[in-house]
Amino acid sequence: MKRIILFAASVFLFAGCVNGQNSSDYASLPQQKPGEQVATFGGGCFWSMSEAMSELKGVDKVVSGYAGGTKVRPSYEEVGTQETGHAEVVQIYYDPKVISFATLAHAFFFAHNPTELNYQGPDRGTDYRSIAFYRTPEEKAILLDEIKKIDATKHYGDPIVTQVVPFKAFYPAEKYHQGYYRLHPESGYIQSVSVPKVEKFQKAMKAELKPEFQK
């Protein structure tokens, strides 16, 4: 899995963002608080998706990871081969008294471009596909209704291609992926790809952002 960025005539490859880290050093899942609910979405690189969703009011924790495939506890490198079936996703722990699943679903569709099939901007492959998981029939209905509403507005021009599938399992990504957006602001990929996506999200979801992110 490579993140590809075009600067003028030059092409720079960010190969897996491994940076010499131990790929077996996985993050841990947080203990779910009483009354807290969980949602799982994938929309391209989880660095920007994680940052965007964490800025929403009512969101307590966002964990980057992998879902949608068959391999148990895959590594970043394995997911990048596109042979595991997994996509880069984020798992969101939120307070339903503050933010609803419907609002999270709406935000998800503006945190990436859901009309891009098996890619997001410069990132290519099924591991970057747009995918939304539901845990109940109600959540499935909400996701399908949100797709229908956004398509009707012609906001994106092209129809949404997001997969809407039942949740089965989530595997946390390696520790060095967690909070990567804030930990590596100097990264060329973060500056050129992630920051524009997060800024677009902030404009679209301004009323739902935590006070510190309402510019």
Automatic annotation (TrEMBL):
Q: Name one Pfam family in it.
A: PMSR
Residues annotated as catalytic: 45
Q: Name one GO molecular function term.
A: L-methionine:thioredoxin-disulfide S-oxidoreductase activity
Top-level taxon of the source organism: Bacteria
Instruction: Name the EC number(s).
Output: 1.8.4.11
**By its UniProt entry, which Gene3D superfamilies does this protein fall under?**
Peptide methionine sulphoxide reductase MsrA (3.30.1060.10)
Show the coiled coil region(s): none
Q: Which residues form the signal peptide?
A: 1-20
Q: Is Signal among this UniProt entry's keywords?
A: yes
Q: Which InterPro entries match?
A: Met_Sox_Rdtase_MsrA_dom (IPR002569), Met_Sox_Rdtase_MsrA_sf (IPR036509)
Record keywords: Ubl conjugation included? Answer: no
The Peptide methionine sulphoxide reductase MsrA domain covers 39-189
Q: Which reaction does it catalyse?
A: [thioredoxin]-disulfide + L-methionine + H2O = L-methionine (S)-S-oxide + [thioredoxin]-dithiol; L-methionyl-[protein] + [thioredoxin]-disulfide + H2O = L-methionyl-(S)-S-oxide-[protein] + [thioredoxin]-dithiol
Q: What does this protein do?
A: Has an important function as a repair enzyme for proteins that have been inactivated by oxidation. Catalyzes the reversible oxidation-reduction of methionine sulfoxide in proteins to methionine.
Q: Which family does it belong to?
A: Belongs to the MsrA Met sulfoxide reductase family.
**Protein name, UniProt field:** Peptide methionine sulfoxide reductase MsrA
Q: Which gene encodes it?
A: msrA
